[in-house]
Amino acid sequence: MGVIEVGRLCVKVAGREAGRKCVVVRIIDKNFVEITGPKELTGVRRRRANVKHLVPLPVKIDISEGADDSEVLEALTATAIYEELVKEAQARGGGGS
Amino acid sequence: MPEDPFGPRRGSKKRRVAVRTPGGRTVYHYRHKIHGKARCARCGRPLTGTRTGPRSVMAKLAKSRKRPNRPYGGYLCSKCMRELIVTRAISLGWARLSPAGGLA
Asked: Model-level pTM?
């Protein structure tokens, strides 16, 4: 699996959330991971996803396995990528959903 | 001479179908043209998850039954949409945020 790991920022490339960024919060098995946007930031709700539907980005945030959405959001706020994610959310018309 | 009740451009609007009548004559009936299948704007392959049909049928269908519910659904095929998203993520400079550089 390699690059798909807890805290890894990814782009979803399939389904209605295609093109949106998300964070891996738990590895379920070799095919599935649990991800979250979090929803209020990128619009990706907390869900199970096939790793084939994710493209890893070279950004990783520091979270523990199974971290809840508020912890993920907090970890993202501290990084340089946060502003870009906010900018993307605004370009979509504000907010996650 | 009376006007054609079907309008002057009937032949170009509709398709002609040859029908043999009981009297042995061959006459032409005019029917709706058949719509082509929706195709990907980038690669030209037929799109999956889309419906085709006369307007009267399409208007009755729900939007969710006419195109996939994803970005570029009903315009690009899933493969092209995927490539577009990945190349855009690179070109928008997401790669430069990495200490190591490059897409993983």
From this structure: 0.73
DSSP B75: T
Question: Would you list which residues of chain B are within 8 Å, Cβ to Cβ, of chain A?
Answer: 69-71, 78, 81-82, 85-86, 88-89, 94-95, 97-104
Q: Are B97 and A81 in contact (CB under 8 A)?
A: yes
Kindly give, in sequence order, each residue whose CB lies less than 8 Å from that of residue B75, ignoring residues fewer than 6 positions away. Answer: B40, B41
- Tens digit of pLDDT per residue, chain A (97 long)? 468 899 999 999 999 999 999 999 999 999 999 999 888 889 999 999 999 999 998 888 999 998 899 999 999 988 888 888 888 888 887 554 4
ipTM summary value: 0.79
Which chain A residues are within 8 Å of B81, Cβ to Cβ? 13, 18
Which DSSP category does B39 fall into? Answer: B
Cis ω for the linkage preceding A38 (within 30 of 0): yes
